């Protein structure tokens, strides 16, 4: 027997290859599991925390309501714009109407002024005749006075004179025929109506209603006119003594004045 036969070997027994492989696999699996867990933890630690808000879902009904609201708003805006345009047009029309009225008044005033100037010029041309009518004149060799003297009216003429003198102080109103107010032809018509004589209503017709007489041959009750015969713009009644009564204008009303105050153009005799 060998002298080494009872001495144990100091070498460790050789392990089988399958055992080694198995242990190696287990260790690898554990390490892999740890690695994955570590990576997952790191990922969760690094990921920021966010809050998710849920927005309302735009449904078909809500969309229809929004569209309808938009239409209403658009229609309201169009209505406001139309109203603004109408207001602007109305303001412009009112402004134009005011300007037109002012222009019409201006032209009317100018026309009236021209008519008055023309009447005054025509009256001035008859100054000599009217002066003769105011002072009166005596017929040569007879000593009789003309009809413009202070002779007293009688009969119907006296009634006409009395009537117009009773209206002195009353108002002048265009188109009025009494009893509280008159215009010029309304007064003359009313005076002759008292004695049963129907005269035309307007001055133009009254200036040709009787027989034309000269201003130097007037009698109480004669109708005086201003302007042309048939185109007169004013009338009055001669009351004798170089005086007449007439509804002159809105400022003076019915007055009694001398012929020189406003010399007439002519006269007609109805009585």
Q: How would you characterize the overall build of this protein?
A:
Helix content is 48%, strand content 13%. By secondary structure, the chain is of the alpha+beta class. It has a domain at 126-136 and 145-269: endopeptidase domain like (from Nostoc punctiforme) (endopeptidase fold (from Nostoc punctiforme)). The strands form 2 sheets. It has a 6-stranded antiparallel β-sheet. A two-stranded parallel sheet has the order 1-2. The model is unreliable at 33-44 and 127-151 (pLDDT under 50).
Short description:
With 271 residues, this protein is of the alpha+beta class. It contains 6 helices and 8 strands. The termini are far apart.
Q: What is the CATH superfamily of the domain at 126-136 and 145-269?
A: endopeptidase domain like (from Nostoc punctiforme)
Report the total helices.
6
Order of helices and strands: HHHHEEHHEEEEEE
Portion of residues in helices?
A: 40-55%
Shape: rod-shaped
Structural class: alpha+beta
Radius of gyration: 62 Å
**Sheet bearing the most strands, described?**
6 strands, antiparallel
Give the termini separation.
205 Å
Q: Per CATH, what is the topology of the domain at 126-136 and 145-269?
A: endopeptidase fold (from Nostoc punctiforme)
* Beta-strand content estimate: 5-15%
Task: Report the CATH architecture of the domain at 126-136 and 145-269.
Answer: Alpha-Beta Complex
Strand order of the largest sheet: 3-8-4-5-6-7
* Average of pLDDT: 77
CATH class categorisation of the domain at 126-136 and 145-269: Alpha Beta
Using DSSP, what is the number of strands?
8
């Amino acid at each position: 027997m060998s002298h080494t036969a009872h001495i144990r070997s100091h070498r460790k027994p050789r392990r089988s290859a399958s055992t080694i492989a198995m242990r190696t696999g287990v260790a690898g699996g554990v390490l892999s599991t740890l690695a994955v867990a570590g990576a997952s933890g790191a990922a969760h630690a690094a990921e920021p925390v966010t809050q998710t808000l849920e927005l309302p879902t735009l449904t078909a009904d809500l969309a229809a309501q929004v569209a309808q609201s938009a239409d209403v708003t658009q229609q309201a805006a169009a209505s406001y714009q139309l109203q603004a345009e109408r207001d602007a047009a109305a303001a412009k029309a009112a402004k134009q109407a005011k300007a037109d009225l002012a222009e019409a008044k201006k032209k009317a005033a100018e026309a009236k002024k021209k008519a008055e100037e023309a009447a005054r010029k025509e009256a001035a041309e008859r100054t000599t005749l009217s002066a003769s009518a105011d002072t009166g004149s005596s017929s040569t060799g007879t000593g009789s006075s003309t009809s413009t003297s202070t002779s007293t009216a009688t009969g119907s003429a006296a009634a006409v004179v009395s009537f117009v003198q009773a209206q002195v102080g009353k108002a002048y109103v265009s188109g009025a025929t009494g009893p509280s107010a008159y215009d010029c032809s309304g007064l003359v018509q009313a005076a002759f109506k008292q004695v049963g004589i129907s005269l035309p209503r307007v001055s133009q017709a009254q200036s040709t209603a009787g027989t034309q007489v000269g201003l130097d041959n007037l009698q109480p009750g004669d109708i005086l006119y201003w302007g042309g015969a048939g185109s007169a713009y004013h009338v009055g009644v001669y009351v004798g003594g170089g005086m007449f009564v007439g509804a002159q204008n809105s400022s003076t009303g019915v007055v009694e004045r001398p012929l020189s105050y406003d010399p007439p153009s002519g006269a007609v005799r109805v009585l």
